[in-house]
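sry for the spam today, last one i promise. C-alpha cells for design, 222 residues
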C-alpha cells in the first residue's frame, strides 16, 4: 500500500486537507500528515509574527483557528518534519503550502503546490488576465508580482479561506468585475465548496490548489 506524506505548515490534524486527498487518490493509499509547528503551544505560535508581506503565511491551527505566521519560522522546522514523514514510510512527499520556498534540507523529490499551480496556470493561460484569491491583503503585492509574466496581467482579491459563503460570493464578484480569464485560488486551505461558488459566479476556469495538487499526486501513485 502506497503512503502519501503531507507536511502542513501549521499543526495537525487537518481533516479538511486529508479529506480532499482521500476523495481523489486511489483507494487504499495511506495518508499521513505532520505539522511543521507540531509541539508548539498556541501561545508560542502566536509569537511567530511575520516581519512583512514577504514573510507572511496563512494556516489554520488544527484546522480550527486562523493565524498568520512567519515563513522563516516554518522553514526552520520543515526539514525535521519531512524527515519524520520519511520515517513514517512515505512514498511521496508533499509540502502543503502554495508559498514559494528556498532550497531546504531534505526537500529533494518533494512536491510543492506552488509549482503545480503555477505550471497549470501557465499552460491554461498564455495571455490574458489571471485572477487570484489570496488569504491576506498584505500578500497581494507580493503574489501579484510572483504570478505576473509576459502577456498576462494579474489581479487579486483577499479572501480568508475559512470565510462563509457570503464572503466568498462578495470576493468572487469583486474579482469578476475586473474580468479575469482564469482564476487561481492561491492557498491550500481554500475549500472545494468555495471553489464551486467562485466558478459559478465567474464562469471561467477556476483552479483550487488542494484538488489540483491531489490530482498530480494521483498520477504519481496510480
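last one done:
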Amino acid at each position: 500500500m502506497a503512503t502519501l506524506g503531507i507536511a502542513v505548515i501549521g499543526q495537525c490534524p487537518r481533516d479538511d486537507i486529508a479529506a480532499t486527498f482521500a476523495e481523489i487518490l486511489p483507494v487504499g493509499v495511506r495518508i499521513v500528515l505532520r505539522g511543521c509547528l507540531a509541539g508548539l503551544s498556541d501561545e508560542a505560535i502566536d509569537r511567530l509574527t511575520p516581519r512583512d508581506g514577504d514573510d507572511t503565511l496563512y494556516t489554520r491551527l488544527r484546522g480550527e483557528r486562523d493565524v498568520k505566521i512567519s515563513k522563516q519560522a516554518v522553514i526552520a522546522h520543515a526539514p525535521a518534519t519531512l524527515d519524520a514523514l520519511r520515517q513514517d514510510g512515505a512514498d511521496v512527499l508533499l509540502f502543503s503550502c502554495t508559498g514559494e520556498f528556498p532550497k531546504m534540507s531534505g526537500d529533494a523529490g518533494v512536491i510543492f503546490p506552488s509549482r503545480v499551480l503555477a505550471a497549470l496556470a501557465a499552460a491554461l493561460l498564455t495571455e490574458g488576465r489571471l485572477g487570484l484569491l489570496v488569504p491576506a491583503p498584505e500578500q497581494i503585492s507580493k503574489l501579484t508580482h510572483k504570478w505576473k509574466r509576459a502577456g498576462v496581467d494579474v489581479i487579486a482579491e483577499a479572501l480568508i479561506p475559512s470565510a462563509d459563503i457570503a464572503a466568498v460570493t462578495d470576493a468572487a464578484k469583486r474579482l469578476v468585475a475586473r474580468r479575469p480569464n482564469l482564476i487561481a485560488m492561491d492557498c491550500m486551505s481554500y475549500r472545494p465548496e468555495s471553489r464551486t461558488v467562485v466558478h459559478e459566479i465567474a464562469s471561467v476556469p477556476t483552479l483550487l490548489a488542494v484538488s489540483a495538487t491531489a490530482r498530480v499526486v494521483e498520477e504519481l501513485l496510480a
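Helices lie at 15-24, 42-46, 71-87, 113-124, 140-147, 165-176, 192-202, 209-221. ok im logging off now
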